[in-house]
Amino acid sequence: MSQPWSNDEFLMRLRRIGEQRYHDKHPYHIRMHEGKLSPEQLRAWVANRFYYQQNIPVKDALILAKLPTREDRRRWLQRIVDHDGREGDEGGIEAWIRLGEAVDIPREDLLSERLVLPAVRFAVDAYVNFCRLQPWPEAVASSLTELFAPTLVSRRIVVFEDLYPWIRPQGLDYFRTRLHQAPRDADHGLELVLRKCCTRREQERAVTALSFKCDVLWSLLDALQLAYPDGESCV
Ligand SMILES: O=C(O)c1cc(C(=O)O)c2c(n1)C(=O)C(=O)c1cc(C(=O)O)[nH]c1-2
User: Fold this and answer.
1) Predicted ipTM?
2) Predicted TM-score of the model (pTM)
3) Domain count, the chain
4) CATH of residue 86
5) Is 234 part of any domain?
6) Does ligand 1 come within 6 angstroms of the Cβ of 219?
7) Is 232 inside a domain boundary?
8) Which of 100, 113, 181, 200 has the most Cβ atoms closer than 10 angstroms to its Cβ?
9) Which of 178, 185, 187, 216 to mutate to test the pocket of ligand 1 (most atoms within 8 A of CB)?
10) How far apart are CA 130 and CA 202, in angstroms?
11) Cα 97 to ligand 1 centre (Å)
12) Buried b vs exposed e over 152-163: b needs ≥16 C-beta within 10 Å?
C-alpha cells in the first residue's frame, strides 16, 4: 500500500490537473479570450454553457443529499441558492439568461435549448450522473475546477469589455458575482476533500474525479469547435 500524500503534495497534484487540462487551454476558449469569436460563435458558447449552468444546482442537490453533517449541508446549500435564486434575488441562472439577452439571444430561445448541441448535453449529463452515482468525496472533488475559475473569469470580464464591445454591459454581472462565490465554494470543497480523502487510494480517486470534470468542460468546447469551426467569420 502506498503512503498517503501530504496535504501539500495532494494539493499540488490537484492544481496540476488544472494547469494541464482546464478549459482555458482549449482552442475555442483561447479564441474567445483573444477576441476572435464571431457574434454567432460567442452566442453559441453562451447558449451551450446555459445547459451547464442549469444543471449545476441539480448536481449540487445530489451532492447535498449525501453530505453527512448538518454544518456541511448548510454551507453546500448556498450553492443551490446562488444559482436558483430566492425571493428578491434572482440568482445565477437568471443572470446567465441576461447574459444571453446581452448577446442578443432572446430569453425564449435560450430556455428552449434549441442551440444546445447533442455532445454538450451528453457531457453535462455525464457530470450530473457522476455526482449522482459516485461517493460524495469524489463528487465534491469534481467541483474543484472552481479553484481555477476565478482567475479565468476575472480575465473574461476584461476580455468581454475590451474585445467584444457589442455585448451589453449588464450581461457581465454573472461573472462579477462569481468572483466572490467561486473562491468560497472552492475553499469549502477543498476543505471537505482534504478532510475526507486520507488514504492514497482516496486521494488518487479525487484527482481522477477532477480530471474527469476537466474532460466534461473540454468536451463542451470540442462540440462547439466542431459545430462552429474557425474561419471566415471573425469579428
Ligand atoms: O466560466 C467558467 O469558466 C466557469 C467554470 C466553472 C468550472 O470550472 O467548472 C464553473 C463556472 N464558470 C461557474 O460559473 C459555476 O457556477 C460553476 C460551478 C461549478 C461546479 O462544478 O460546481 N463549476 C463552475
Assistant:
1) 0.92
2) 0.95
3) 1
4) 1.20.910.10
5) no
6) no
7) no
8) 100
9) 178
10) 16
11) 16
12) bbeebbeebeee
